[in-house]
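Bump. Still looking for Secreted protein structure tokens.
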Amino acid sequence: MAISISVVLLLLVLVVIFMRSGALKVSHGLVCMLFGFYMACTSMAPTIHSGLTATADLVSSLRP
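Sorry for the wait, here they are.
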């Protein structure tokens, strides 16, 4: 749960930065959000979730 909240907050910060700089329009953000909700309802959702979890585990295991 902590990883998903962190990812959501990171994506929210990126969206705000892109919208303020003019690189992302509101309509593009809405389309991306709707696509995300659509993908969450498909059979690919568990695969995407496990891929993100594996990536987060890999990144957290790296030592600087």
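The radius of gyration is 14 Å.

Edit: fixed formatting.
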